[in-house]
């Protein structure tokens, strides 16, 4: 659940510049946030919908570009920029948004004592994982049709985050995440740990997001308000957990939408049902060649290949056995399926290329419809972005 640290966008590259001539959403903003499950907007991909997906992808890219990936640096695993200049310094300054909160995630992995003798970058517990930004520009608020709040989350970067990713069995959500009840959702153990773990000096990601959402709702709750959580890879998984926690905890929560890029599976069918019940809208942007989107665990739905290959009774038996294990996952939300093999501009396609955020944004830019997976266009990514 990781991306290469060289994931970048070039602000002056016309390939990504929907924000140079952004469409006005106005009163239709709820449709683009998924109130109708993006009916009629994804296949074929509507121009305004494309621009919105790319725009939220740029917020995630800014999280990558702000992160200090250098293990020899004294500021490793922190944000390289202050809140006031983060978007500007990452080449994404003309957004009308202002960063209001830095976010950190803490690994709950219990490490042996001898690990303290290793370099500090290998044992760092808490690291900067993203930020909250609030739209403050009046013209942009008018274009969007509401004040938008973005939570942007990066993918895996540190050693202990990688270890958390390996904890792929399902676990019950703890009582302090979401509503109480006998049928609590189960989620991937490592993602749950990263969302809820804390140290004596660093609150949990859950605490930071809850506190900031509460502050924003109190400040702007009397006007049209949306909360958009966007992330790539690990960040996409944490975005779904965050959305679940917010919509099931805050009675006055604003409209919550998730734009997920290359996200792994997160939880079981109960999680999906609770998300649907809460009104959370999730758009999963998936590259069919990206293996990360197919893990962890197994998904067996009522209408999948297993049910078609075997008799109803055999398929039901298999589903029942899978649900009783720690590996029975369920996909959530609506899916925009892309395919890296359809792009004539991608070279040397491999695991890393298929999962890279810049590949996802390239595919979103070129996707037309399921019958025309990629448009032949002269807008070709520069070789330094693709190779």
From TrEMBL:
Recorded superkingdom: Eukaryota
Keyword tags: Chloroplast, Hydrolase, Lipid degradation, Lipid metabolism, Plastid, Transit peptide
Domain Fungal lipase-type: residue ranges: 150-298
Keyword Nucleus annotated: no
GO-annotated molecular function: galactolipase activity; phospholipase A1 activity
GO CC, one annotated term: chloroplast
Gene Ontology biological process terms in this record: lipid catabolic process
Listed Pfam families: Lipase_3 (PF01764)
Primary localization: plastid
Compartments where found: Plastid, Chloroplast
Keyword Lipid metabolism appears in the UniProt entry: yes
Assigned protein family: Belongs to the AB hydrolase superfamily. Lipase family.
Classification via PANTHER family: PHOSPHOLIPASE A(1) DAD1, CHLOROPLASTIC-LIKE, PHOSPHOLIPASE A1-IBETA2, CHLOROPLASTIC
Stated name of the protein: Fungal lipase-type domain-containing protein
């Amino acid at each position: 659940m990781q991306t290469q640290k060289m994931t970048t966008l070039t602000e002056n590259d016309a390939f990504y510049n929907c924000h140079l001539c952004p469409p006005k959403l106005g009163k239709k903003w709820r449709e683009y946030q998924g109130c109708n499950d993006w009916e009629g907007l994804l296949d074929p991909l509507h121009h305004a919908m494309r621009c919105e997906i790319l725009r939220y992808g740029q917020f995630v890219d800014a999280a990558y570009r702000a992160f200090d990936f250098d293990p020899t640096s004294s500021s490793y695993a922190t944000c390289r920029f202050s809140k006031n200049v983060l978007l500007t310094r990452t080449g994404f300054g003309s957004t009308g948004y202002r960063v209001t909160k830095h976010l950190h995630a803490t690994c709950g992995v219990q490490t042996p004592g001898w690990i303290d003798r290793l370099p500090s970058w290998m044992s760092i517990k808490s690291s900067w994982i993203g930020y909250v930004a609030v739209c403050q520009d009046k013209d942009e608020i008018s274009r969007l049709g509401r004040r938008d709040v973005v939570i942007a989350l990066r993918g895996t970067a540190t050693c202990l985050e990688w270890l958390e990713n390996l904890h792929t069995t399902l676990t019950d959500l703890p009582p302090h995440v979401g509503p109480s009840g006998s049928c609590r959702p189960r989620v991937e153990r490592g993602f749950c740990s990263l969302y809820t773990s804390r140290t004596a000096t660093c609150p949990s990601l859950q605490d930071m997001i809850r506190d900031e959402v509460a502050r924003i709702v109190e400040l702007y709750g009397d006007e049209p308000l949306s909360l958009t959580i966007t992330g790539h890879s690990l960040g996409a998984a944490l975005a779904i957990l965050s959305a679940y926690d917010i919509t099931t905890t805050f009675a006055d929560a604003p409209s919550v939408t998730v734009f997920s890029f290359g996200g792994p599976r997160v939880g079981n069918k109960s999680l999906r049902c609770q998300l649907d019940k809460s009104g959370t809208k999730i758009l999963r942007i998936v590259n069919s060649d990206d293996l990360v989107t197919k893990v962890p665990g197994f998904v067996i739905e009522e209408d999948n290949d297993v049910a078609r290959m075997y008799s109803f009774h055999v398929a039901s038996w298999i589903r029942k056995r899978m649900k009783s294990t720690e590996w029975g996952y369920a996909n959530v939300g609506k899916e925009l399926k892309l395919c890296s093999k359809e792009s004539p501009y991608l070279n040397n396609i491999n695991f890393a290329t298929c999962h890279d955020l810049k590949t996802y944004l390239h595919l979103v830019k070129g996707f037309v419809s399921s019958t025309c997976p990629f448009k032949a266009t002269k807008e070709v990514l520069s070789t330094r972005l693709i190779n």
